[in-house]
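Lecture 7 notes: from sequence to structure.
We start with the chain below.
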Amino acid sequence: YALLVESDAGVPMQYATCRELDSESLYFQYGGSFPGTKGTPKSVRCLQKIIEWAEFYGYRRISFLVENTNEAMLKLALHCGFLITGIRHFKGLILLEHVKEFPSG
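Predicted structure tokens for the same chain:
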């Protein structure tokens, strides 16, 4: 999937590309905020919209990796309820695995 969050005026604010791992799991491959959104409270709301989309379409969990030096994304992920569940080393980088699970119901 390629997801785009726009403002009410149709201005792009945030994007994510996702891959379905199985019928219950979604993996964010790439994502980011556009100028004017990055590092602002709008970025939190945009990520929350993407999370709501995933839950609405029946996914039970979302996961992604964040480089340990990407402080803004680390803070954003934790603020939106993701938990750090692992550490991966890839091509000299340290990546933190984040997972958000939706409550059963």
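Points to note: The helical segments are 41-56, 71-79. The chain has a mean pLDDT of 92.
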